[in-house]
């Protein structure tokens, strides 16, 4: 079984998968917004494929004894927005390969609560892991019914699974 370690969420490391923004850091938001104070507009655009309106969903994840990635998913046409509300989380991401998607290309990232992450279309990802609490609530922005109309799912059975380990 492959093991990956979460790395800091930096622009250089995460650029190939999407974008992120700490929504508690007013100075950093001011750098990205056309309105530099009070209302920080259009920080991270989300492309939802133009077919279906966006919807807010919440993922409730609980701390696991072992952070094991047992499956991956991707969306062909739409991105996904994630915002951990009440705890730091670990996400994983990887480049999609059509031949035989495996966990070999996955990387893990530590996402502080309050940091919004955009995962671009065709980026492998999946269930998040809680770091510093027993549970986390994660705001998910996706087009309505994405789980039914734009989802490719890949189980990782046995040794194909990936384990995330903290230092």
Mean pLDDT: 89
Q: Uncertain runs with pLDDT below 50, 5 residues or more?
A: none
Helix content: under 10%
First-to-last CA distance = 18 Å
Beta-strand portion reads 35-45%
The chain-level structural class is mainly beta
Q: Note the total helix count.
A: 3
Give the helices and strands as they follow along the chain.
EEHEHEEEEEEEEEEHEE
Rg (CA only): 16 Å
Largest sheet: 5 strands, mixed
What's the number of extended β-strand segments?
A: 15
Shape: globular
Explain this structure.
The chain is mainly β and 167 residues long. Helices cover 9% and strands 41% of the residues. Strands 2, 8, 9, 11 and 12 form a 5-stranded mixed β-sheet that branches. It has a 5-stranded antiparallel β-sheet with strand order 3-10-7-13-4, with no helix packed on it. The longest helix has 7 residues. The relative contact order is 0.31.
Labels describing this entry:
167 residues, mainly beta, 5-stranded mixed sheet, 5-stranded antiparallel sheet, 3 helices, 15 strands, 9% helix
Question: How do the strands and helices of this protein lay out in sequence?
Answer:
Elements: E1 2-4, E2 6-8, H1 11-14, E3 18-22, H2 26-32, E4 54-62, E5 67-69, E6 71-74, E7 80-84, E8 89-95, E9 107-111, E10 115-119, E11 123-124, E12 129-130, E13 135-143, H3 146-149, E14 152-155, E15 162-164
Parallel strand pairs: 1-15, 2-9
Antiparallel strand pairs: 3-10, 4-13, 5-15, 6-14, 7-10, 7-13, 8-9, 8-11, 8-12
